[in-house]
Amino acid sequence: MFHRALRTLAALGLIACSAAANAQAISYVVLKGKTFYVELAENDEQHMRGLMFREQMAPDRGMFFIFRDEFMQAFWMKNTLIPLDMLYFDKSFHVVSVQSNVPPCKADPCPSYPSSGPAKYVLELNGGTADKLGVKPGDALEFHR
After folding, report:
1. Mean pLDDT across the stretch 125-141?
2. Which of 25, 31, 88, 112 has the fewest CB atoms within 10 Å, i.e. is most exposed?
3. pTM above the 0.90 mark?
4. CA 19, CA 8: separation in Å to the nearest integer?
């Protein structure tokens, strides 16, 4: 009886963890007609952690970085295990530049991947997604919180 109660509590805990993980993906963006459910990175700690240590990411998921001000951005792939696209957007949600299919970092220090102009937002998607969609500077992004 005690073990069954523990299993039930453990199952409920897994359900709660799963619900919490799904709650992070409530926000979404639309780019070139395709919807991506995104985790938000809005503070310094979240900006620094990004998608580190992730072994995979569903094709319709990503991370959306929100910065207080628009400025030149540069991202790196330290402790990032999957190739990513880094799409930089200005304050009007238009593509400033794209870093496509950036590989995981195997060097120390890791190289950085800068924007070609000031950006307020950065969208990270699975590597190769931007090329598949034909994303180019000037394309608009819709952001839904």
Report:
1. 98
2. 112
3. no
4. 16
